[in-house]
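Weekly structure sync, notes
Attendees: PL (lead), two postdocs, one rotation student
Agenda item 3: pending single-chain targets
PL asked that the sequence for the first pending target be pasted directly into the notes so everyone works from the same version. It is reproduced below exactly as submitted, 235 residues in total.
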Amino acid sequence: MEKGYISTFRASVKHEIEENRAPWKTMGPPKIEVPSPKNFLQKHSKEPKLPHRKRDEGRKRLLTIPSVPHVTDHPLMGIQSKKNFINTNAADVIMGVAKKPQPICVDTRQGHKYLLETSGLVPKYINKKDYGLTPKYVIKRSEEVKRAQEEYDAYVKETLRQKAMKRLSDEERESLLQGLKKNWEEVHHEFQGLSVDIDTLPKKIRKQRLEAQMKQLEHDISIIEKHKIIYIANK
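Predicted structure, written out during the meeting:
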């Protein structure tokens, strides 16, 4: 009798199956505790509960509060002070510094008044030492801007000297901008003349070419409109 085919990986597959085997792989846990029907979810069982109040806490709080005097209790009578309040008050008034009245302003016949200092009628700020002078931070900022402009002009001059660049005049810039817009209108008119059904490869290539041209023209127009000063290289 001939023997059947035996795979060379039989031992390794058998070993792997024995390692990964577990009683709950396919049929669930072999033993599980079934919940008791007596432990059902009750109403308000998950709400937080306050700790139980002790009886001694209320008594201690009552002991700290002073008791109400009895009806038979009489207040202390006959207590007198030897201080002469009339002389004391007179001495305080004589020795004290008189308060200066606050200046006010009345603007109606009915007597409506308000403080004069905060009304804006008193020349308060023009009497300051630094009134009318430029603030220091403004001077510092102006110097920084001037220094940055000088550095930029020097850089532009050096670049122009090295690369022999030319600055476009306002007329040339406007003419260039109008030419780009005219080219965009022509390409856009040609794009609108395309057929609605783009079903062939030449039509797709033509549409992509026109879209790329319009996108490049829009980019150039936006750059020229954004920058007022434009330099070009002399060839």
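Discussion points:
- The longest strand covers residues 104-106.
- The chain has a mean pLDDT of 82.
Action: rotation student to compare against the earlier draft before next sync.
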